[in-house]
Specification:
The protein has about 400 residues and is of the alpha/beta class. Helix content is about 55%, strand content about 10%. It contains 13 helices and 7 strands. The strands form 2 sheets. A 5-stranded mixed sheet has the order 4-1-5-6-7, sandwiched between helices. Strands 2-3 form a two-stranded antiparallel ribbon. A hairpin with a 3-residue loop joins strand 2 and strand 3. The chain is elongated, with a radius of gyration of 29 Å. The protein starts with 6 loop residues before the first helix and ends in a 14-residue tail after the last helix. The C terminus is likely disordered.
Length: about 400
């Protein structure tokens, strides 16, 4: 058969395997990700306690030093936790709200005094607070919380063994209260800060919003480019006017998509959107920025430039839901940080989980700059030589 001799048919196995290889690479970051240097804050508010014949002790400081020693022992390896000492709880709350830490451990006031009381007939439970910054990234925050809980469980186990040994040395009976502290001498309170809520795709709502937003911007830019390209443009003036029309259409589509998408996810899909108007305006800005970026590329390289953004979608989306600390240095530094949709995810996270409002700073400012530069590139493309389409005579 003739078609069996065609080069395209003979090359089809190679082409298919190449496509499989390319798209298999998108799975690499999510295969067995290992966290490195998760920023976790530690606060010691313990004032210490004076013990007769022993002077002042501060068990909070001792605990912090032990944690620091454990981190140093992992020399040659990047530790899972990057401990950051913070002076007080108010400062750590501010840091959590500014997305500096995935979690925090707070050794509360009176920790040493209460720990010393555990051997007395009227013991008081020392307290440690664990704060989980769920909105920063639900996956990393959950892992950080589990690690902190493991640390406090281990501390409880060691302290319980020490207390039991002391009670045995005393050789006397212990009170009911003393017996109760042996199970868990330290009280651990766990609190979610900037919680993602129930209807948020397990904290991945920002990434869920980006997927239809990015694809619709590609489709919208392609349709507008093809439509304008069909017009017989005869001069640079007409070319410049067509670029202004393209930009105007992009702005109109951005408003439609911004308010339309948030209406769909809020009313039909059941996502929790705390501030409808601010979120819709940010989504509109994101769409306009994406639309202009894609249009800037197609203005100079034609419709084939769309392929770049399709690849960005397939390679970028798996990274958007991952914390940077879970990625290899290559994916983090050379792909993740350069993804234009990353800024939309960060802005949406602030709006959905951190109580932010729409303003032209942070991610919004970056998206605005991206859109402005793209607009300039689009307008400059009007200076290209005009290629008039052939005129057919009847």
């Amino acid at each position: 058969m003739k078609f069996l001799k065609q080069k395209l048919f003979l090359l089809s196995p190679i082409l298919v395997l190449t496509v499989v290889l390319i798209f298999s690479l998108t799975l690499v970051p999510s295969v067995n990700p290992s966290p490195r240097s998760l920023p976790i804050a530690i606060v010691n508010e313990d004032e210490g306690f004076d013990i007769r014949n022993k002077g002042k002790i501060n068990m909070g400081n001792t605990f912090v030093e032990k944690i620091g020693d454990l981190a140093k022992k992992s020399s040659g390896e990047v530790p899972v936790i990057h401990w950051i000492k913070v002076p007080d709880k108010e400062t750590v709350i501010e840091g959590l709200n500014n997305q500096k830490y995935y979690a925090a451990m707070v050794i509360t006031k009176g920790f040493s005094q209460k720990q010393a009381s555990l051997q007395t007939p009227n013991p008081s439970f020392p307290n440690i607070e664990i704060l989980i910054n769920e909105g920063m990234n639900a996956t990393a925050a959950k892992m950080a919380g589990q690690m902190l809980k493991g640390i406090t469980d281990n501390l409880n186990k060691n302290l319980s063994s020490q207390l039991l040994a002391e009670f045995e040395k005393q050789g006397g009976e212990i009170s009911t209260k003393q017996a109760s502290v042996l199970a868990a001498p330290i009280n651990v309170d766990v609190t979610n800060i900037n919680a993602v809520g129930l209807n948020s795709a397990n904290g991945n709502a920002p990434v869920s919003f980006i997927q239809p937003l990015w694809m619709s911007s590609i489709i919208g830019a392609a349709i507008v480019f093809i439509s304008i390209n069909k017009v017989n443009i005869k001069s640079r003036r007409e070319s410049f006017l067509s670029k202004l029309i393209l930009i105007s259409i992009g702005a109109i589509l951005a408003i439609i998509v911004g308010f339309g998408l948030i209406s769909i996810v809020d009313n039909w899909l059941g996502f929790h959107v705390p501030n409808f108007n601010d979120t819709a305006l940010f989504v509109a800005l994101s769409y306009f920025s994406f639309f202009m970026l894609i249009s800037a590329v197609t203005a100079w390289f034609g419709i084939k430039g769309i392929g770049i953004f399709a690849l960005l979608f397939f390679f970028g989306v798996p990274l958007l839901s991952m914390p940077p600390e879970f990625m290899s240095a290559f994916y983090r530094d050379w792909i993740y940080y350069w993804l234009p949709m990353r800024f939309s995810v960060e802005g949406l996270r602030e709006l959905l989980y951190f109580g932010s409002t729409f303003s032209f700073d942070g991610p919004s400012l970056i998206l605005l700059i991206m859109a402005s530069l793209s607009v300039c590139v689009i307008l400059l493309s009007a200076l290209k030589p005009v290629q008039q389409k052939g005129i057919q005579h009847g």
